[in-house]
Design a protein that fits this description.
Largest sheet: 4 strands, antiparallel
Oligomer: single chain
Number of domains: 1
Strand content: 25-35%
Order of helices and strands: EEEEHHEEEEH
Helix content: 10-25%
Number of helices: 3
Shape: globular
CATH class: Alpha Beta
CATH topology: Nuclear Transport Factor 2, Chain: A
């Protein structure tokens, strides 16, 4: 059964349920899980009630320099946040790649489930004056084939 669709607003850095005329819209439960995993900060109040804590440490990189080391840390943070997909047998494999795109952190994710690969991409836009904005489903050509 599909999950409730979460629409992520990059300007406000908030996710919200999507309403149709009469109900909540359903959609891609894997995408919803990835959004929650990557864009929930560690220390989220609901972690007190969970066996495994949710959250991703990407916000720790807000003021980091745009270096190869930062890309590797971002990749590792995303892998850690998504590791539960393999541990809970939701996915057979999760591949994460990162790269800089015009001073923005781009993250490409391939999730393999029973030989089917789903691709997701996110761009973290940090302009210094506002909190980071996450832009979903941007075209990130070849990010996973040759990126970090």
């Amino acid at each position: 059964m599909p999950d409730i669709t979460i629409a992520f607003d990059g300007r406000t850095i908030r996710g919200d349920f999507v309403l149709t005329a009469t109900d909540l819209q359903t959609g891609d439960d894997l995408q919803t899980s990835i959004i929650v995993s990557l864009f929930t900060e560690p220390g989220w109040w609901a972690n007190a009630y969970e066996r495994d804590a949710w959250g991703c440490r990407l916000l720790e990189l807000r003021r980091a320099k745009h270096t190869r080391e930062t890309l590797l840390r971002a990749r590792d943070y995303c892998r850690q946040a998504l590791a539960w997909l393999i541990e809970d047998r939701v996915a057979d494999a999760v591949d994460v790649a990162t790269e800089w795109q015009n001073d923005r952190l781009a993250v490409g994710i391939n999730v393999t489930q029973a030989s089917r690969v789903s691709q997701y991409s996110f761009v973290w836009d940090e302009d210094g004056a506002t909190p980071p904005r996450y832009v979903l489903n941007l075209a990130l050509p070849n990010l996973l084939s040759g990126g970090g």
